[in-house]
Design brief:
The structure is a single chain. The chain has 333 residues and is of the alpha/beta class. 26% of the residues lie in helices and 17% in strands. It has two domains: 14-74 and 114-332, Glucose Oxidase, domain 1 (3-Layer(bba) Sandwich); 81-112, no CATH class. It contains ten helices and 15 strands. The chain has a nine-stranded mixed beta sheet, sandwiched between helices. Helix 1 packs parallel to helix 9 (276-285).
Length: 333
């Protein structure tokens, strides 16, 4: 079963819907004309201090998928899986060919990969709306062949840490919509009503408010672990409905991450469209999006103890001028 978009969403007019939504949720100028952090301004020092008190049992969970050649990428827009090779090895050490004195040996390695090939953040220079980047800047003045010289991911290297909230929509609604008991079917559009229903089912610890980092589990990653990657990278997927843009703005979330390749539902909810929700929330709202997060272990813990909030430390690798970056998010409970 696929959730249908509301009647007011005209499938034939993505251009009009995007323009209207962008106007409603725009944060341009909210934090000043020079701002480069967008919604991460909502994560205050006090917010982080309160988030730190959520660590009670000392349990930690990595929310990163593996970075290796067996990943989901299939070459779309030259996105490949990481290529990891060794520069020095134990066999070199045994052969005594490394040139170190007194019998010392060592190993070194190197990796080559697109920055958005596994668990990652979309930065504010990743998507434009009619040639405009975050805060109304001209796209060509923000990102050039030298990289993002204004909102490069390094500008927020210390900001993505605070209260994380898991909305396990797959577990809350999976049985009702697909009979799967934990997974949403591909093409399922998660509406504001579904998010609210999940909060109601999970309880008070999953209330979402200003400055929170929202983590949404659909169950698609768990299905990929069981059945193989298939079309995980770029294919059909459950995800957030275009209609959630206003909900995200009203809640003033700082960032949103999901366990899918593209964050929003695929196919998208218009007859001809490509990632329309990205086009609204990144350049207009200034919202950071996380994709391909591994949420199965965390979700099991949250379901077990009934608490869906945690301290989340999710700093991107500060690659200068990058429009997105890999990371190893850690949830602490």
């Amino acid at each position: 079963m696929t959730a249908l978009p509301p009647a007011e969403l005209d499938r034939t007019d993505p251009e009009g819907a995007i323009a209207a939504a962008a106007k409603r949720v725009s944060n341009w100028g909210r934090w000043g004309e020079a701002d480069v952090k967008g919604t991460l301004n909502l994560i205050t020092d006090d917010h982080r201090r309160r988030a730190a008190t959520l660590v009670r049992r000392g349990r930690s969970y990595s929310l990163a998928q593996r970075f290796d050649m067996d990943g989901p990428q299939k070459g779309w827009r030259r996105r490949t899986n990481p290529v990891h090779t060794m520069l020095d090895t134990g066999t070199d050490a045994e052969a005594g060919i490394q040139g170190f004195p007194h019998g010392m040996g060592g190993a070194d390695d190197v990796v080559a990969m697109p920055l958005q090939c596994s668990t990652q953040w979309d930065g504010l220079g990743h998507i434009f709306d009619h040639g405009r980047a975050w805060n109304g800047r001209r796209a060509g003045e923000v990102v050039t062949s030298l990289g993002d010289g204004v909102t490069g991911i390094e500008t927020v290297a210390a900001d993505l840490a605070g209260r994380g909230v898991l909305l396990d929509v797959g577990r809350a609604l999976g049985e009702d919509v697909a009979g799967t008991g934990g997974e949403l079917p591909d093409g399922f559009a998660i509406t504001p009503e579904h998010l609210e229903a999940t909060i109601a089912a999970q309880g008070a610890s999953s209330e979402v408010g200003p400055g929170d980092i929202l983590v949404v589990r659909t169950g698609q990653y768990g299905r990929a672990l069981r059945d193989g990657w298939g079309e995980y990278a770029g294919g059909p997927a459950p995800g957030l409905s275009f209609t959630t843009a206003d909900w995200l703005r009203e809640r003033d979330v700082a960032a949103v991450a999901t366990d899918t390749w593209g964050f929003e539902v695929r196919p998208n909810e218009f007859d001809v469209a490509f990632q329309p929700l990205h086009q609204v929330v990144i350049p207009n709202m200034g919202l950071f999006l996380g994709e391909m997060w591994a949420l199965e272990d965390l979700a099991a813990d949250c379901s077990g103890d009934g608490s869906y909030e945690f301290l989340l430390v999710a700093a991107p690798l500060p690659v200068t001028g990058a429009v997105g970056a890999p990371l190893n998010p850690i949830a602490l409970k």
